[in-house]
Structures are given as C-alpha cells and as structure tokens.
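To fix ideas, we reproduce below one chain and its tokenised fold.
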Amino acid sequence: MGMLLLQQDWLVFPFFFFFLSIYLFGYLFLFRNKNPKIRTEFSSCLISLFHGTPAAILGAIALFSDPNRGFAASNTSFQKTVLDYSIAYFVTDLLHYVVFIPGDVLFIAHHLATLFVIVTCRYVVSHGAFSVVVLLVLAEVTSACQNTWTLAGACRLENRFAARVYDALSPPFYVVYTVVRGFVGPYFVFRMVVFYASGLASGLVPTWVWVSWAVVVFSAIGVSILWVYSRWVELIRERRTEYLDVAKTYGLHPVSLAIAFVLRHPLVASVVFGATKSWQLREVLNACKIKLTSEVIEEINKIHSRFPNPCP
C-alpha cells in the first residue's frame, strides 16, 4: 500500500501520519505534565517546528531547481511533494483546532483557506506551484523564530530564562515579520495578480482559481499586518509601563523621573524639553531638584537590561 501511494504521488498520507505522530508524541509524552491549554499549544508548535523551516528550505530548493519556473509553469514533482507536505501539516493542525479550540474561528478559517489554495494548486490545475510555493516560503521563513517566541511567551511568567528569550526575540521577530508580511508578501502577490490578470496564464490557471488565491492571500496578509501591529503596540506599551511603575513606586512624576535620570549623566549639560502647559513646566523644574537614589537607578537599570531600546 505504501509503495502504491508513493507511485501515485500521494505522499500527503504518509506526511499526515508523520505530523499526527509528532503531535501525539508531544501531547501524550513530551508535554504531558503541562496544563491542558499549554499542552495542546505546545503540541501544535511542535508540529509547526517540523513543518515551517523544512517547508521553507524544501520550497526554496524546489523553486530554484526548476529551470522553467514562473507563474504559468507546470508543477514539478518536487513542488508537488512540498505542497503535499504542507497539506498534511495544515490538516493535522486544523484537527488540533477543531478538537481542542473550536471557538478559534479565525485560525480555523485561516487553515481552511490555506488548504483551499494549496489543494487547488496541487490537485485541480496542476499549474501555479511557483506562486504558491513562493508564498509558502515567505509565510514559513519566520516559523522557527515564531514558534520559539510562542513557547517562550507561554512560559515567561514562571521561567526567568523563558522571559529573557521572549524579550530578546520580540523586537527582531516583529521586524522580520513586518518586512516579510507587510512589504515582500504584498509585492509578490501584486506581481502575481498582474501576471494572471494580463491573461498570460489563460487556459492553464482558470480565472476563478487565481482570483480566489489572491483574495485568500490578501486577506491573510491583512490579518497578519493587524496581528503584528497589535504586537508592536503591546510591546511599546509594556516597556513604557515598566518605567511608569518605577515612577509610581517612588512617588515621582514620569516626566521628572526621565529628566532627572538624563541630568545625572556626567556628560549631559542640559535637557531639551517641550512644555506647552504650566504643569509640564513645573514638572521639568522639579526634576532639576530631584536626586535619584541608588534604589531608583537600580530599578531603571533592571528594566533597561531587559529592554535596551524602550521605543523600537
């Protein structure tokens, strides 16, 4: 049976059992001592780790090994294998959400839409794998970092090392994710739509197929941009809140704390400020009289060691 499947290029089935086995291993053994929510989340991240980076690498190899690569090129055997690998992963992760998190409609819809694109490319039109695999590579290039970030974030409240990993990964991960999902991805989809709309793939990739691909991908990119925007807002708010808490603890206004900290530096002769109200000017003048204690400086340095740049 296994040889028959391989001969028919139906690798999606052994790939599915591969991901299902990894998920069950994580759920039943590796993360069995975690609470139920983290247990399922970690198991999902585990199969994502086995999919994301390998899919990105295999996808890149499949693209560059095709001398006829292009939006209208027929799917190569290697590209079909990459698509089957991803279909198996998304089916497995979809089952995870349906069984354990049925209320997460957004992710369920995302997986169904992604499967629609990959399955139609792989089994319906047999063309356009270049477009889909490029989008797959762009989507998964941040996978390893994102999964590590997710796992560290889930453990950061109870594990200091996980908290440091989460804090260190957040800014660079958000930057790369923003560039890929906010600029590179939309640019590639724009080029894809222009190509298909020009009719250069007429008779190879039906209009309803590439239009549906474009709708799905643009929707996914929009959701990704909103998600990373919310992460940037939360990151900046979290870093700002840390300093506000120090000011509140020692009975200082945040403005006074900031200016007093700058003035204590031996190389600083003056501070530029922009007061537009009388109370703001009073806080600035009060800051000139404040001598920060060693305890306050220590608290500030602790925050700075975690967040070297409070406004990335």
Q: What stands out?
A: Residues 1-8 have pLDDT under 50 and may be disordered. The CA atoms of residues 75 and 195 lie 17 Å apart.
